[in-house]
Design a protein that fits this description.
InterPro entries: AAA+_ATPase, ABC_SmlMolc_Importer, ABC_transporter-like_ATP-bd, ABC_transporter-like_CS, ABC_transpr_FbpC, P-loop_NTPase. Keywords: ATP-binding, Cell membrane, Ion transport, Iron, Iron transport, Membrane, Nucleotide-binding, Transport. This protein is an alpha/beta fold. Helix 5 links the parallel strand 7 and strand 8.
Length: about 250
C-alpha cells in the first residue's frame, strides 16, 4: 500500500471532544480520495495532520516505507514531500505564474527548472500564461496554477482543501472534470476534502465519509449511490406500508 494512516487521534485541547478518533485508511498509488463531511466533522483536521500542521495524540502515517509520524517520529512539513493546494490558492500576487510555480524548485538547476516549468504548464493547459500575474487570471486559471505549483516538485502526495469553494456553480462543473484529468495524467496520489457530494462523485476513486471525527462510509462513488438508492427505496416502502395500514 502506498499511504497508510493508522489509528490517528487528535483533539484541539484536553477538554474538547476528539476531532479525529482512531482514523485509519490505506491509499493506493495514484488514487484520488475524497474526504466528505459537514463543517466540524474533522475533515480539515485530517488534512492538517497529514501536512504536518498539527501533531496527533496517537497514530501513524507512512508513505511507502517513509514514516512521517508515529509515537517516536514527527517530520516537519517541509520534509514530508507533500504538496498542498489551499482553499484560497495562496498564490504570491507579486510573482508571475512562472515564478509562483518555480518557488518550490530551488534545488534544481536552471535548465531543469525551465523544463519542469514547461511540463507542468502543459499539464494544466496554460502554456502561454507564464509571464502573467495572478490578478490577470480567472478563478479557474488561478486554481490550475496552484495545482501546477503543488505538482512541480513531484510530491508523494497532494492535499486539496475544498478545491471548488471559490468558484461559481457554472465553473465548478467544468473544473471538476479538468482537475481529475490533471491528477490522473500526473499519476499523483491525492486527498481532497469537501462538503459537496458532487465534488466527491466526479473527482474521487473512493469516498470517505466522516462524521464527528470517525469514518462512517468508505467506498466508490457508485457504492454510495447504491446506498442512497437502497435507503430511498426503503423509505418509500415504509411510507407505502403506513398508507396500507391507514386503509
Amino acid at each position: 500500500m502506498y499511504v497508510t494512516i493508522e489509528n490517528v487521534c487528535f483533539s484541539y485541547s484536553k477538554k474538547s471532544a476528539a476531532a479525529l478518533d482512531k482514523f485509519s485508511l490505506v491509499i493506493e498509488k495514484g488514487e484520488v480520495i475524497s474526504i466528505l463531511g459537514k463543517s466540524g466533522s474533522g475533515k480539515s483536521t485530517l488534512l492538517r495532520l497529514l501536512a504536518g500542521l498539527e501533531k496527533p495524540a496517537k497514530g501513524s502515517l507512512k508513505i511507502e516505507d517513509k514514516v512521517l509520524f508515529d509515537d517516536k517520529t514527527f517530520l516537519q512539513p517541509e520534509k514530508r514531500g507533500i504538496g498542498m493546494v489551499f482553499q484560497d490558492y495562496a498564490l504570491f500576487p507579486h510573482l508571475t505564474v512562472a515564478d509562483n510555480i518555480l518557488f518550490g524548485l530551488f534545488r534544481l538547476k536552471k535548465a531543469e527548472k525551465k523544463r519542469r516549468l514547461q511540463e507542468v504548464l502543459e499539464l494544466v493547459e496554460l502554456e502561454g500564461y507564464a509571464k502573467r500575474y495572478p490578478h490577470q487570471l480567472s478563478g479557474g486559471q488561478q486554481q490550475r496554477i496552484a495545482i501546477a505549483r503543488a505538482i512541480a516538485p513531484n510530491p508523494s502526495l497532494i492535499l486539496l482543501d475544498e478545491p471548488f469553494s471559490n468558484l461559481d456553480a457554472e465553473l465548478q462543473e467544468k473544473i471538476r472534470k479538468d482537475l481529475r484529468d490533471i491528477l490522473k495524467k500526473a499519476n499523483i496520489t491525492s486527498v481532497f476534502v469537501t462538503h459537496d457530494e458532487k465534488d466527491a462523485y466526479v473527482l474521487a476513486d473512493r469516498i470517505v465519509k466522516i462524521q464527528d471525527g470517525c469514518i462512517n462510509f468508505v467506498g466508490r462513488p457508485c457504492d454510495m449511490l447504491d446506498t442512497y438508492s437502497q435507503a430511498a427505496l426503503s423509505s418509500k416502502a415504509s411510507v407505502a406500508e403506513e398508507e396500507l395500514v391507514k386503509i
